[in-house]
Amino acid sequence: MDKIRALIVDDSSVMRKIVERSLRQAGIELEKVVEAANGAEALAALQSNAVDLILCDINMPVMDGLEFVRQVATVETAKGIPIVMITTEGSESHVVQALSAGARGYIRKPFTPDQVKEHVLPLLGKKP
Amino acid sequence: MSAAGGLAKRSHEENWLPILELAIQEVFEIMLGCQVKPIVQSEHTPSGEFTAMVGLAGALCGILTVSCDAKTARHIATCMLGDAASSEEQAADALGEICNMITGNFKNKLAGTDEQCMLSVPSVISGGKYTFRSLADGNSIETALLFEGAPVFVRLQLHS
Questions:
Q1: Chain A: closest CA distance from residue B74 (Å)
Q2: A contacts of B81 (beta carbons < 8 Å)
Q3: How many domains, in total, are found in chain A?
Q4: Domains in chain B, ordered, with CATH?
């Protein structure tokens, strides 16, 4: 598998590290990892970083994950980048909102590396 | 609310303790790779050196707190990160995220509640010399669990 560039968006720095580790455990080789603590930081990061995959929390200060996903859809250079939500919000309405806004996957916290593998690999054109 | 209604609600909430304990156990097992077991709370004194809290609003209204001593908070961060050592900032961050996941996992297990309940982002207090008073005036559910030999206290304080 080609190395990928990932943007990880979560207000917890510990959780960003766990998500990165889970990607590596899923067998995904990472060329670069860009981190952001909220949706606004992530949008700014997309202006100067090309990425192949975005993993994003929902409940964050400044700009939450759902608003970030909506905003990404309006950024020409970011259109088509697969976004996977990783969040404690497990309700059906949150899933529907996220997928309607443009997210391609939804993982509920707490999560295992296998769940990351199952949801992320198909988005990268690979079998889990 | 009628007396009968109040009794029914209290009884309902009393049934939530095993659900809360299951939610806690799942978070520790999945995210830290550690099993935790409920303990008799009165045999342990809460140090409260680190207290993480997440607010709930909507169908379920109140606050969930997770407290432990500083050494335990650092140990939790170390287990989550898989590193040899962790800083105080990482300990606070990790405990906040544990509190967030316990609250979300608990909420998601309550049928009919998860759709109508929102969570706040976590906040963490560090330092032992403070008094915590919740303005929530309803019932509370409390439990304590042993994590690697150290107690971790979890309390859900509900608005009536």
A1: 12
A2: 14, 17-18
A3: 1
A4: 3-158 (3.40.1550.10)
